[in-house]
Design goal:
Blueprint lengths: L9 E2 L8 E12 L4 E11 L8 E5 L4 E7 L2 E2 L5 E3 L3 E5 L13 E9 L9 E5 L2 E5 L18 E11 L5 E4 L2 E7 L4 E13 L5 E4 L2 E8 L5 E8 L8 H18 L7 E7 L6 E2 L4 E5 L12 H16 L8 E2 L5 H19 L2 H20 L11 E2 L8 H34 L3 E2 L1 H12 L8 H4 L5 E9 L4 E9 L14 E8 L17 E2 L2 E4 L3 E6 L7 E4 L8 E4 L3 H10 L3 H24 L9 H11 L5 H8 L4 H5 L7 H18 L1 H11 L9 H19 L3 H13 L3 H12 L6 H12 L3 H12 L6 H8 L10 H14 L1 H4 L5 H13 L4 H8 L10 H15 L6 H11 L1
Parallel strand pairs: 2-12, 18-19, 19-21, 22-24, 25-32
Antiparallel strand pairs: 1-23, 2-3, 3-9, 4-8, 5-6, 5-9, 7-8, 10-11, 11-16, 12-15, 13-16, 14-15, 17-18, 20-21, 25-26, 26-30, 27-29, 27-31, 28-29
The structure holds arginine and zinc ion.
Arginine binds next to strand 20 and helix 2.
InterPro entries: Aminopeptidase_N-like_N, Aminopeptidase_N-like_N_sf, PepN_Ig-like_sf, Peptidase_M1, Peptidase_M1_dom, Peptidase_M1_pepN, Peptidase_M1_pepN_C, Peptidase_M1_pepN_C_sf
Family: Belongs to the peptidase M1 family.
Protein name: Aminopeptidase N
């Protein structure tokens, strides 16, 4: 068993610049099916900004050192040492080496085994093709190097491999040379003119299908665009290509940022731990975020592909041209780039819909992380395994923090800050503090207090009360802020919270906002919350208004305000802020759900509140609202988000209440659901314009209510949608609804679906997922058989996520079975996986993180599994960190 003292913790406060810099990096890859030889020639120099050192220490893991030379001198065993993590060269023992003054060349030759590398980190062979994943610390599995983002170097890479099997040899930058060799081998040489850290290195070698196109930049340069995919997938690449061109144009238009190399390549691979990776000029993607055709991908998949293509492209400036000094600064590039991709998607689709979707992620996942054992600030202070910190906090809460600058400074002020950030830091590895300074200086805006968003973890809570004084026509708001303690942090200091608000008159119109005193506390419709307790007096308020608070979710906080049903229904019908309109509906639903839980608790019969019918009916028949908005507004609050609203949850009651409400709404409005379903569901020619996408989303939600009726007629509609659709959006909706229902022939439908799609991996994953998330009872047995299915592969993270991840993360009823079998199943999968793929195993382990929310018996059962995991022999530090902190 790993103990806490055998596992090193890294701290942000310990940062020291690297003792040696690497000006040039020349890599030689000799690729073979069963091993590879990597020769590195590094031009090193003592770092004038670091403490001098007589030893050169380089990172290296799972490398077999074959040769080592300095300035052409072969080193003897007394001059260096290797262990499982490092190479140390005693430079003072190397003859005639003036290592403090002059630069020198280190040459190492190592052997590695990409064919047995199942961690999908470093260089690995997957599906007959070589590829790399180096972020965060994977480059050290390729060669000995100073594998840290503040060591930046010019890379030249030579790749050699068998020509027939690996006709494409790719790396970063531009190809400068290629040619044929003896024995059927060939080579290519790539040179990247931009200095970069090792985590942005990439290599791909294989036999791909290639889609080619180009983009003309605003300054008139012609950029070659290339997408490499598995043979036969070419017709699924056009959407990714179109998305790339849109992203390139958008970044020029909105941020004035132009692409810098002459070629931009994207390679799609089936075995990938994450979504994608922004390697300079050579992005590597999970196939899930490249391939999209309407036969096999849903409207949501199309949107996701567009967003991830854009995200990786945007990293070229926010991440690559300006990179991170150390990994504690990860949100510097990720929070910023997520914000940029969110804005891009909003511009391509619908701002309100996109905002709601993003906030749902925050509420269901980030709030949970912030309240659990892994809570960390967006700029963490410590970690055991960096890969565990690619989190919703660093990414999505990080993006919320960036969004708040945009809210506080306006689009123009934000742009000025960005311009100054690039002007100051292009070509550098910097910190979050440097970003704050750029925003501050460009706008002469004091962000001293705002900086606490980087250092304090936990979700702040705002409690608001109000009084209306009719005589003096004034409204007083009292606002209190608190932030719960999180591991290692207590007594938080107040945050600077932009609270966007509106006061609605009887007609639902916004009243003008004006403060009686301290006008600097209000900018437009943004109230600046800066203290633990504050009161604000609004004047000239002629009638008692309805409050619309935290419009557009202007800060990542929980808001408490004692709305009554009437006010919520009013906001649901009238709020001009579409986010809060949606929010009011969700609050209405949530109140009902909690009320239904209370009734069960008291042993009473559950009562359906009829006032909901009206509100829902109005929304359904609204002519002005978009179909996607309607779909979101008609979807009941996510159970995961609801769990985060309470201290401890009675999960059984919550699920019963949720189902009861869904079924009641289905019954009460049966005719409406049917009418709207029929009006929005089309079987004719497939179209993918905004209107058609919106109609499919709306029709899908209508169908979900119909299926909740559990009537043969409704099942028939779903079956017909599944079998007769000409697109995956409709097919998947039908499949999912049926798999989660009690429809008696569902197994037959599942089998037929598999028969039809067995050669499309991404569709097979949908098939896996729809079954793994079936909340009904024999699912645990079903899931046991799914992992034995020939299409399942423990080595493929997409498959693991589709079955095990979906079961543990999105099937609350079955994962949290009272008999604990769900927990046992998950722990067993973690046991099978932790040495195969530590990163993916650690992600799965996170499903236990919220154990404290549940009843005593479930808590006991979850802890038992966590303890078992901690007893595993040679436990990876990835899983160790998650499991030990969970029990913490
Ligand atoms: N930088 C990549 C992205 O956000 C993610 C890489 C994550 N890799 C990892 N091993 N955790 O686009
Ligand atoms: Zn990213």
């Amino acid at each position: 068993m790993k103990t806490s003292d055998s596992i090193p913790v890294k701290y942000r406060k310990d940062y020291k610049p690297s003792a040696y810099l690497i000006h040039e990096t020349k890599l030689d890859f000799d690729l073979f099916d069963d091993h590879s030889i990597v020769t590195a020639r590094l031009k090193l120099q003592a770092n004038p900004n670091a403490d001098p050192s007589d030893s050169l220490v380089l990172d290296g893991e799972e490398l077999k050192l074959l040769e080592i030379f300095i300035n052409g001198q072969k080193l003897e065993s007394a001059q260096y040492e290797t262990d499982s993590e490092q190479l140390t060269v005693w430079l003072d023992k190397v003859h005639n080496l003036n290592y403090q003054q002059n630069s020198f060349e280190l040459m190492t030759k190592v052997r590695i085994y990409p064919n047995t590398n199942t961690s999908l980190e470093g260089l690995y062979l997957s599906n007959g093709k070589f590829c790399t994943q180096c972020e965060a610390e994977g480059f050290r599995k390729i060669t000995y190097y100073s594998d840290r983002p503040d060591v930046m170097s010019i890379f030249t890479v030579r790749i050699e491999a068998a020509q027939q099997k690996y006709p494409h040899l790719l790396s970063n930058g531009n190809q400068t040379e290629h040619g044929k060799l003896a024995n059927g081998r060939h080579y290519a040489i790539w040179h990247d003119p931009f200095r970069k850290p090792s985590y942005l290195f990439a290599l791909c070698a294989g036999n791909y299908d290639l889609l080619e196109d180009h983009f003309k930049t605003q300054s008139g340069r012609k950029i070659k665009l290339e997408i490499y995919v598995d043979k036969g997938k070419l017709e699924q690449c056009h959407h990714a290509m179109a998305s790339l061109k849109k992203a390139m144009a958008w970044d020029e238009e909105v941020f004035g940022l132009e692409y810098d190399l002459d070629i931009y390549m994207v390679v799609a691979v089936g075995d990938f731990n994450m979504g994608a990776m922004e390697n300079k000029g050579l992005n590597i993607f999970n196939t899930k975020y490249v391939l999209a055709h309407s036969d096999t991908a849903t409207d949501q998949d199309f949107e996701d592909v567009e967003a991830v293509i854009a995200h990786e492209y945007f990293h070229n400036w926010t991440g690559n041209r300006v990179t991170c000094r150390d990994w504690f600064q990860l949100s510097l590039k990720e929070g910023l780039t997520v914000f940029r991709d969110q804005q891009f998607t909003a511009d391509q689709t619908d701002h309100a819909v996109k905002r709601i979707e993003d906030v749902k992620v925050i509420r269901s996942h980030q709030f949970a992380e912030d309240a659990g054992p892994m809570a960390h600030p967006i700029r963490p202070d410590s970690y055991i395994e960096m890969n565990n910190f690619y989190t919703v906090t660093v990414y999505n809460k990080g993006a919320e923090i960036i969004r708040m600058y945009h809210t506080l400074l306006g689009a123009g002020g934000f742009r000025h800050g960005m311009d100054l950030y690039f002007e100051r830091h292009d070509g550098q590895a910097v910190t979050c503090e440097d970003f704050v300074c750029a925003m501050e200086d460009a706008n002469e805006y004091d962000l001293k207090q705002f900086r606490r968003w980087y250092s304090q973890a936990g979700t702040p809570e705002l409690t608001v009360t109000s009084e209306y004084d009719e005589l003096h026509r004034k409204l007083t708001l009292h606002v209190k802020q608190t932030c719960p303690d999180t591991p290692g942090q207590s007594n938080k200091q107040p945050f600077h919270i932009p609270l966007k608000l509106g006061l609605l008159d009887k007609e639902g119109k916004d009243l003008p906002l004006q403060l009686a005193a301290n006008p600097e506390q209000l900018t437009g419709d943004i109230l600046h919350i800066t203290q633990l307790e504050q009161s604000f007096e609004f004047t000239e308020i002629a009638q008692q208004p309805v409050l619309s608070l935290l419009r557009n979710f202007s800060a990542p906080v929980r808001l408490h305000y004692d709305y009554n049903d009437h006010e919520l229904a009013f906001l649901f019908a009238h709020d001009s802020d579409p986010f809060n309109q949606w929010e009011a509906g969700q609050r209405l639903f949530a109140r009902v759900i909690w009320q239904l839980c209370a009734e069960q608790e008291a042993g009473e019969v559950m009562q359906f509140p009829l006032h909901l019918v009206n509100a829902v009916q109005n929304l359904l028949s609204s002519e002005s609202l978009d179909g996607r908005f309607k779909a979101l507004a008609l979807t009941l609050p996510d159970i995961k988000a609801l769990i985060e609203e309470v201290e401890r949850v009675n999960l059984d009651h919550l699920i019963v209440a949720h189902n009861f409400l869904k079924k009641e709404l289905a019954c009460q409005l049966e005719m409406d659901w049917l009418v709207h379903y029929q009006a929005n569901h089309h079987v004719g020619k497939f179209q993918q314009d905004k209107t058609s996408i919106a109609q499919r989303a709306f029709a899908g939600v209508c169908l979900s209510y119909l299926v909740a009726l559990e009537k043969p007629k409704a099942y028939e509609l779903a079956v017909s949608q599944l079998l007769n659709s000409n697109n995956m959006t409709d097919a998947e909706t039908g499949l999912k609804l049926l798999m989660h229902s009690n429809y008696e022939d569902k197994q037959q439908l599942a089998d037929d679906f598999y028969q039809k799609w067995q050669n499309e991996d991404l569709v097979v994953n949908k098939w896996f997922m729809s079954q793994a998330t079936d909340p009904s009872d024999p699912t645990i047995e079903r899931v046991e058989t799914l992992i034995e299915h020939p299409a399942f592969d423990l080595k493929n993270p997409n498959k693991v996520r589709a079955v095990v991840g979906a079961f543990a993360g999105a099937n609350l009823a079955q994962f949290h079975r009272k008999d604990g079998q769900g927990y046992v199943f998950l722990a067993e999968q973690i046991k099978r996986l932790y040495s195969v793929n530590p990163q993916t195993a650690a992600r799965l382990t996170g499903a236990f993180n919220r154990w404290k929310k549940f009843d005593d018996e479930r808590q006991r059962l979850m802890c038992e599994q966590l303890q078992g995991i901690l007893q595993l022999p040679d436990l990876s530090k990835d899983v160790y960190e998650i499991a030990s902190k969970a029990l913490g």
